[in-house]
Amino acid sequence: MTYTSSTVRVPDVAAVPRHIAIIMDGNGRWATQRRLPRVAGHTRGVDAVRAAVEACARRGVEYLTLFAFSSENWRRPNDEVSFLMRLFVTALEREIGKLHANGIRLRVVGDLAMFDTRIQDLIRRAETKTARNTRLTLTIAANYGGRWDIMQATRKLVDQSVAAGRPVEVTEEAFAEHLAMAYAPEPDLFIRTGGEQRISNFLLWQLAYTEFYFTDTFWPDFDADALGHAIESYAERERRFGRTSAQLEPQSQNVDSLPC
Ligand code: FPP
């Protein structure tokens, strides 16, 4: 299992983040500024997704996680929700061959039961086709919510206890094993475009010690250079994980015995 808890053990830190998680915000405002319908911003947003995937693969980022549709996005007008679903299907059908050819593994996390079965089948086929790729894992969070994730992991622990006829031991790592992204390390860098400074029910558990980067740039304008600036900002951060600056060498020591 790749997941290690940053609150149990200090993870290794490098200048290039292993895992970047992004809230792609500002599509609607990008379009409105140009007197275009909001959905035109989503269409351009797909181009920015492609640019981000390419830039991450080039820079050696191992995991890129994109918040495409939150549990709360169902509250949007029906026609915008339907447009986003169609856009997702079209993008997946069109890009999956290229992702595979470039060694990219695709995963989709979220409550997929809410999507129609055609979309669910397409997702499963794309995941299966790319399952053995190792260059970059691209995760699309769709109908995802951090609280949903924590609840579904809790239910699995409860189910395990019921099946065992006794309460299973509840540790951070036993719990995190049931999170939807148990296959990935916690994000090193969280980026939100579009000017808002909130995490909007994204990876609530995993963002405990993630570095945050907020930019006013709207998602359709977030290109390889913009990603480069975010990574440069990250490289300048001192990631202490509860320690003092003086303790920072050597990295990767177990925090069990350290005061917070
Ligand atoms: C937020 O901007 C964006 C979304 C809710 C959808 C993001 C979807 C894409 C970028 C395209 C599909 C993705 C994939 C992975 C193929 P907003 O509409 O909230 O913008 P606003 O805040 O300016 O209104």
TrEMBL record:
Q: Which cofactor does it need?
A: Mg(2+)
Q: State the protein's name.
A: Isoprenyl transferase
The entry's keywords: Magnesium, Metal-binding, Transferase
Stated role: Catalyzes the condensation of isopentenyl diphosphate (IPP) with allylic pyrophosphates generating different type of terpenoids.
Q: Name one GO molecular function term.
A: magnesium ion binding
Cofactor remark: Binds 2 magnesium ions per subunit.
Q: Which SUPFAM superfamilies match?
A: Undecaprenyl diphosphate synthase
Q: Which NCBIfam families match?
A: uppS
Subunit organization: Homodimer.
